Amino acid sequence: MRVTVIDYKAGNLTSVLKTLRHLGAEPIVTDGDLALVEAAERIVLPGVGHFAATERLDSTGLTTAVRAAIARGVPFLGICVGMQWLYSGSSEAPDQPGLGHFAESCAHFSESTEKVPHVGWNSLEVRPDSRLLAGVEPGEHVYFTHSYRAPVTADTAAITHYIEPFAAAVERGNVMGVQFHPEKSSATGLKILGNFLKWEGN
Question: Is 100 helix (H, G, I), strand (E, B) or coil?
Fold first, then answer.
């Protein structure tokens, strides 16, 4: 199974690629080859770093290509900042728009005595009908590292609590995202990525 992995030059893809290969997928990396996105069977957008780095997706034409692929029904998974990019934007970079698949915006965690960024293992409250999180039991732990979070809405597939409840996973149609790093989340992460690879569409 071929998976097109988009590299916007803001993070190390090694762990994601290694995990996809472990699950039997054939990842193909692109940092601007639109033909690879146009021919994609599945797309993964890993992400770390500052939201402003997603400007590269606009300047290379990848945003337009991804939007067209999603419209064709291609399964899409955003990881960490890759999930936040699915929203209209983030207060981390107010002048940089996101994809806008979800109308809401991402924001910094509220002021608290807890440390930010939120780094480490935390549990999931899973929506029972989630396809991406099928087989994930309530309370299973995954690995996070982030300072900005997406709000809880009707599209939220899993909630995690840190300072406040936030969307740990989101899902609508063929578009899915996870705030945590499944490639660093042991057996639970493998299960989630496996669900994405096996999903046959609506």
Answer: coil
- Going by C-alpha positions, the residue among 151, 13, 123 that lies closest to residue 79 is 13
Instruction: With H, G, I as helix, E, B as strand and everything else as coil, classify residue 71.
Output: helix
Q: Residue 91 is encoded by which pair of tokens?
A: 């207060």
**What CATH architecture does domain 2-198 belong to?**
3-Layer(aba) Sandwich (3.40)
Please indicate whether residue 181 is annotated as part of the active site.
Answer: yes
Closest CA to 158 of 149, 148, 150, 168: 168
80, 106, 140, 146: the catalytic one is: 80
Which residue out of 22, 101, 183, 200 is catalytically annotated?
183
> Which pLDDT does position 70 carry in this prediction?
98
Cα–Cα distance for residue pair 19/190, rounded to 1 Å: 8
C-alpha triplet 86, 82, 33: angle, nearest 5°:
95
Could you tell me the sign of the dihedral formed by the alpha carbons of 139, 142, 147, 149, in that order? negative
| Residue 128 burial (C-beta neighbours within 10 Å; 0-12, 13-18, 19+) | exposed
Neighbouring C-beta atoms of residue 93, cutoff 10 Å = 16
Indicate if 80 belongs to the active site.
yes
Domain ranges of the chain: 2-198
Catalytic site residue 108?
A: no
What does pLDDT average to in each consecutive run of 10 residues of the chain (202 residues)?
Answer: 93 91 98 96 94 96 98 97 98 98 98 96 97 96 98 98 98 98 98 96 66
Residue 1 has a pLDDT of 87
